[in-house]
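1st attempt posting a full record on here, be nice pls
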Amino acid sequence: MAISRKKKEQLVAQYVDMLSRSQAAILTNYQGLTVAEMTKLRQKVRDAGGSYHVIKNTLAQLALKQLGLPVPEGLMEGPTAVGFCYQEAPPVAKVLVDCAKEFKPSPSREGSWGARS
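the predicted structure (as tokens):
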């Protein structure tokens, strides 16, 4: 089912908000994770001061452009989720790395946006 233009605009606005509040954002591939694993991962990321969301790649790229941030080449392809770091990035990054070790297949992909000034 196609997403309406209005819903796409809402998603872009949501991504802009999450990115602008984040100290960093870490790209991951969530393919192969069960619902239970995703729920556990989201809870651990929340406990670490962040949030974990599945994103639409093209809409996230629009949000990055709106914020004047670079669009990572080749990293926003396929199933993508982002760990948004609202407080400090290291605790969220540690959760994602630990979960990548725990879950097989792992939710890993190299890519992140650094701390904002």
